[in-house]
Amino acid sequence: MPEIPIVKNIMDVNDQLAASVRNQLDSAGVLAFNLMASPGAGKTSVLMRTVDALKSTLRLAALDGDIATVDVEKIARTGIAVELINTGGNCHLDANMVSRALPGFNLTEFDLLLVENVGNLICPAAFELGTHYNIVIASVAEGDDKPYKYPAMFRGADVLLLNKIDMLRYEDFNVDYFRHGVDVLNPGLTFFPLSAKTGEGFDAWLDWIRVQVAAYRAGGGDLA
Amino acid sequence: MPEIPIVKNIMDVNDQLAASVRNQLDSAGVLAFNLMASPGAGKTSVLMRTVDALKSTLRLAALDGDIATVDVEKIARTGIAVELINTGGNCHLDANMVSRALPGFNLTEFDLLLVENVGNLICPAAFELGTHYNIVIASVAEGDDKPYKYPAMFRGADVLLLNKIDMLRYEDFNVDYFRHGVDVLNPGLTFFPLSAKTGEGFDAWLDWIRVQVAAYRAGGGDLA
Q1: Which residues of A touch B167 (CB under 8 A)?
Q2: What ipTM goes with this model?
Q3: What is the chain B residue with the closest CA to A120?
Q4: A108-136 residues labelled b (16+ CB within 10 A) or e (exposed)
Q5: C-alpha angle with apex B120: B114 to B126, nearest 5 degrees?
Q6: Residue A2: per-residue pLDDT
Q7: Phi-psi region of B210 (alpha: psi -120 to 50; beta: other; left: phi over 0)
Q8: Which of B67, B71, B141 lies closest to A122 in CB terms?
Q9: CA nearest to B45 within chain A
Q10: Residues 6+ away with beta carbon under 8 Å from B77
Q11: What is the pTM of this model?
């Protein structure tokens, strides 16, 4: 099976670059999130509502990973600093792409970097970027069976957002079944049901971010 | 850039295996579809409603590609022959996986093989499986910008289903904007808006399948 050593080498190199990215972030005191989700789960909508709510009190930057350039223009309209990573058709970001994009920012000017990964519930889970938290966004519209079908993504999450809860009244989505699937893979995962459309549930998510940024600052920019 | 020849070799091998799969299908007179979509767009629901509507008049088989084993049990309940391809975490089917799964069927007993690819709007577009038609399933719940953001998938489609049209009244989905994005990439693409939940729009899709199976038979099992 000759392909296994090649894959192993790629992962080793990625992990080294992720460590380098983390080092740059921590040196500058920037907390960073890796936002991952299926196409259409609402990564950009969640990011934009989050930015609008926090940009007056936190210094925000965004890195938009995509195979086309639709979302970056939307994010730029929020007025925060944003850089695009066009993956050239690749199904995920990797640490090398993030490393090459970071010089686009003067990192010391920011508190929080939001990295929007490529819309994909499989590939991004395998590549550390050097960010501090993996934020997975599921949506009511995708169905309640996603944790059972895409276990690696939910297993690797540090925080789970369930978006589009305003659609619960129209969809056959059993929240208990969804939660059970998540609990088996990732017990005690921090979970925020919310709607980027109506704002329902957003306050708890925003509070969580504020607490993390404060804790990160208090720890001198280095999370254990 | 040493990785480029490796990727090229993989694609060449895949294309050769896809040609071999096509040959086996045509020798047995089995028309085959490759169903591709995002997680949660409704591949399995569309497949199951299609099977229920056609199984009394066509001899159907299904190949379920997945990284976990949830859907194959659902499909088995329809009573048709079904084989699972567990991709071991891989984000797409390839022709080798299909080739290894085909011996699970006595192909001469079937008219139509429905291959359900892994839930992913990027990777599956790059791998020919040897099937006759690429059926892409988008859904109203994913948003109307998907053709603009995942162009390769829509460019490679032979038929496009827009699922969950029963949700049009609740979602901000502009059908004209969606159609325009598709038309730019793939002018004249065969398009069926439908709902696997309510059955709305299904008759046109089912009629299209019946016509293709008849044409395939009339042509002696070989599509030009």
Answers
A1: 141, 170
A2: 0.82
A3: B120
A4: eebbbbbbbbbbbbbbbbbbbbbbbbbbb
A5: 80
A6: 46
A7: alpha
A8: B67
A9: A143
A10: none
A11: 0.89
